[in-house]
């Protein structure tokens, strides 16, 4: 039985293709995709589709993709019914709480405002600290919001920390570690068990090879 795999485009794209190549899968079409949207593996009965992170969950949840590769950040913020099966240990970054050095929202008394692209993650984080906050949704360059005085702090993704440093912002706390995860449609896991398990085992092997290399 053939499989369809939804891969998140952008930052994770090359790293995911590298991992599949390491497994001996035929990723030529992923590397040289042009405008094509459905990209067949050249060695296995698998079609890849490159999608936005939220759409990855949607396609897997509805079963039009059997498996998906998507960041834990998207899984934490989104909702969906699927199995989260494997940590690929790629695309590592973290959710942080940050702001201007003199204004730590974790210590502020009174009304606290937080800018974020991830309202659910931010709300859950501050709830775990028993701090009541007003969340202001920002769609991009979240770091701008405390600089302009819109918010006391931000909850955002940090990868290298360069954006924060370049804007004079500091990290007050790490909220969660993030990496790419494999999700599986619940029905596919039953109906295509052998095929799905084969891909998961191949992925798992590649992940542990890389862990050995990094020791
Ligand atoms: C993300 C995040 C930070 C930046 C962090 O934004 O929201 O702004 O990357 O990366 P760094 O720690 O390596 O500097 P993205 O580049 O996805 O763009 P956006 O802000 O427009 O969403």
UniProtKB/TrEMBL annotation:
Pfam families: HisG. It is found in: Cytoplasm. Residues 53-204 form the ATP phosphoribosyltransferase catalytic domain. Its main location: cytoplasm. Its EC number is 2.4.2.17. GO terms for molecular function: ATP binding; ATP phosphoribosyltransferase activity. It catalyses: 1-(5-phospho-beta-D-ribosyl)-ATP + diphosphate = 5-phospho-alpha-D-ribose 1-diphosphate + ATP. Keywords: Amino-acid biosynthesis, ATP-binding, Cytoplasm, Glycosyltransferase, Histidine biosynthesis, Nucleotide-binding, Transferase. The keyword Nucleotide-binding applies. SUPFAM superfamilies: Periplasmic binding protein-like II. GO terms for biological process: L-histidine biosynthetic process. Pathway: Amino-acid biosynthesis; L-histidine biosynthesis; L-histidine from 5-phospho-alpha-D-ribose 1-diphosphate: step 1/9. GO terms for cellular component: cytoplasm. It is an enzyme of class 2 (transferase). Lacks the C-terminal regulatory region which is replaced by HisZ. Heteromultimer composed of HisG and HisZ subunits. Catalyzes the condensation of ATP and 5-phosphoribose 1-diphosphate to form N'-(5'-phosphoribosyl)-ATP (PR-ATP). Has a crucial role in the pathway because the rate of histidine biosynthesis seems to be controlled primarily by regulation of HisG enzymatic activity. Belongs to the ATP phosphoribosyltransferase family. Short subfamily. This is ATP phosphoribosyltransferase. It comes from Ileibacterium valens.
